[in-house]
């Protein structure tokens, strides 16, 4: 029997789930991780079976879009087993089906996995890429090689996946590459989104004011070159979009700090250990691993815990750079919640 859908206290239907499947990564991006990271013991992570059960429960509860993230999702062992299982929930199902299965990746493993992802029903991927310059790429990611990511993007396009590039706007690092990045994406038929760096992490400089580049400045740079028209495409998320009139390209801006984007929020996040966060910018959480492990063959306690958590989803986040002393940063790395 289909379950009643998830509706939060502000009448927002919860239809979008982002799941971080690992805290590990082959990169150490400066705004995301420390140089030396201690990763979680394997036993703390949800197994593939637990991940599949948990995501399946959310789909039964009306989730239509599932985004897999991390850490780097494609470095988790046997990750395709999980994608295959979730791919089987795409389309119409008696308990409810997914409209979309997608992932956010740093692109390093796409050459290896793009075709399998497409075979699982993935149609689009978001690839994070902040620069087209070898040396800067190495400096930002601390471990990554640009050529490998560019080759991964080629592989994704060859496999028929639609690629969107996510660029974190970083003062002093890629503010001189706004136009080249937009031209490069445009020439390859890829959408592009600029993201403001968020006050995440626990590296001692959580406010990240040194790197903060408002995307309004990115937009001004683009507007000096092209004619931009706002497009009223709201996805329930923080992105706003413009169309470049000269090329037809679509460019997005994610401004979690300078605008409040919460009123249409339709999403929740789960970490690789099964912690459900009802809001990216708040610390309230629910432990879904306990009901998964304590009741391995009965989903009722899991579903009850999900419902209790959604019933306290807050109205919005508290990030605010104008409050220097207490700016609402939450003490967890982006790699834990997956952005
Ligand atoms: N490893 C994958 C990747 O890099 O795409 C997925 C996980 S990563 C945490 C998800 C997104 O979060 C990436 O686009 C990354 O650039 C972004 N991100 C990480 N730390 C951030 C921060 N402090 N502020 C804004 N975006 C951040
Ligand atoms: Fe890894 Fe993605 Fe974080 Fe970079 S942003 S360190 S690629 S998880």
The value of Rg in angstroms is 19 Å
Strand order of the biggest β-sheet? 7-8-9-6-5-4-3-2-1-10-11-12
Distance between the termini: 33 Å
| Helix count from the secondary structure assignment | 10
- Helix-and-strand structural type: alpha/beta
**What spatial form do the alpha-carbon principal axes imply?**
globular
Annotated CATH architecture = Alpha-Beta Barrel
Determine the fraction of residues in helical runs and give it as a percent range: 25-40%
CATH-defined fold name: TIM Barrel
Query: Quick check: average pLDDT?
Result: 89
CATH class: Alpha Beta
The biggest sheet amounts to: 12 strands, mixed
Structural features:
alpha/beta; TIM Barrel; twelve-stranded mixed beta sheet; binds S-adenosylmethionine; binds iron/sulfur cluster
């Amino acid at each position: 029997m289909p379950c009643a859908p998830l509706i939060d206290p502000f009448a927002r239907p919860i239809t979008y789930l982002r799941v971080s499947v690992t805290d590990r990564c082959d990169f150490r991006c400066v705004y995301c991780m420390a140089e030396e990271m201690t990763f979680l013991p394997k036993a703390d992570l949800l197994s593939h079976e637990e991940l599949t059960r948990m995501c399946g429960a959310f789909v039964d509860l009306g989730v239509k879009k599932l985004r897999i993230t991390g850490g780097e999702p494609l470095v988790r062992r046997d990750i395709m087993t999980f994608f295959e299982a979730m791919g089987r929930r795409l389309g119409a199902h008696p308990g409810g089906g997914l409209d979309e299965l997608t992932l956010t990746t740093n692109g390093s493993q796409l050459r290896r996995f793009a075709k399998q992802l497409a075979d699982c029903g993935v149609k689009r991927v978001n690839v994070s890429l902040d620069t087209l310059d070898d040396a800067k790429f190495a400096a930002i990611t601390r471990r990554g090689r640009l050529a490998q990511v560019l080759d991964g993007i080629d592989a994704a396009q060859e496999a028929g996946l639609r690629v969107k590039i996510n660029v974190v706007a970083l003062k002093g690092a890629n503010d001189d590459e706004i136009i080249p990045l937009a031209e490069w994406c445009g020439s390859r038929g890829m959408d592009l989104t600029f993201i403001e760096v968020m006050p995440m992490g626990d590296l001692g400089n959580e406010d990240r004011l040194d790197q903060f580049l408002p995307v309004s400045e990115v937009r001004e740079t683009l507007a000096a070159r092209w004619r931009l028209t706002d497009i009223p495409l709201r996805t329930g998320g923080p992105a706003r979009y413009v169309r470049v009139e000269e090329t037809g390209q679509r460019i997005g801006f994610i401004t979690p700090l300078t605008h409040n984007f919460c009123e249409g929020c339709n999403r929740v996040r789960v970490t690789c250990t099964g912690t459900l966060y009802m809001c990216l910018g708040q610390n309230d959480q629910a432990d879904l691993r306990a009901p998964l492990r304590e009741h391995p063959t009965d989903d009722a306690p899991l579903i009850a815990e999900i419902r209790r958590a959604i019933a306290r989803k807050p109205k919005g986040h508290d990030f605010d750079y104008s409050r220097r002393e207490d700016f609402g940063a939450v003490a967890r790395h982006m790699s834990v919640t997956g952005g």
